[in-house]
Specification:
This protein is mainly β. It is built from four helices and 14 strands.
Amino acid sequence: MAATFLLDHVVLLVRNLFQASWDFGALGFNVLYGGEHPGQGTHNALIPFRDGSYIELIAALDSAGKPASALERVQRWPRRGEGLIDFALAPDDLRAAIAGASSRSLEVAGPVPGGRVRPDGVPLSWELGLTDGFDLPFLCADITPRSLRVPGGLATEHSNGALGILAVRVRVPDLDAATRRYSALLGFAPGPAGNDFTVGSAHIALEPSYAPNGDSGPISVALSAQPGSSAGPLSFELAHGAAIELDV
């Protein structure tokens, strides 16, 4: 049986996790400290939503466990400054998703073990499927219950009215090639626009990169919000270089 997917989270790299958490709080989000990733030199905070997705704020730690000033200590991502750097899909069956992609000539590394220790000492574990470029998301599947990793209930209540991740725009170096790669990863063809894919309630829209270096990765996120909320883009400065907007 083919795997099915939901949008799990988007990743936002920041220099100082505690300052970023404060700033996102000022934007009307409920931000929760997530804890440290053992052996990875990073720690994170989460902005969870009612639809089960979340925004991950991630920053480097120095060897003493204090916030590091240089982002170069984060090894997975080769860049650079603050902002959106990656996003993850949650397959209902990680091994089936990896095997399915391989059968369609797209190699996904994994399962690769991952984990985090919550502030209350509870260890979390998951497995990853790692794609070979940032035009594609990575895959994340929980081993410990997902409810331990992604808080629900009151944690998903935000004063700005945000409810969930509605859409992610992704810059790709070659639109046709990226569309084929997404089809291979997901196991289905794009939507009517020819360069868009729907996973659960979220929409992934691809657009070509016109940069000389063919930069790729997520470039903006649209969040659904309660009626009566203030729609529009959030402060780019307070969002630490991430283009995020509320869509009512």
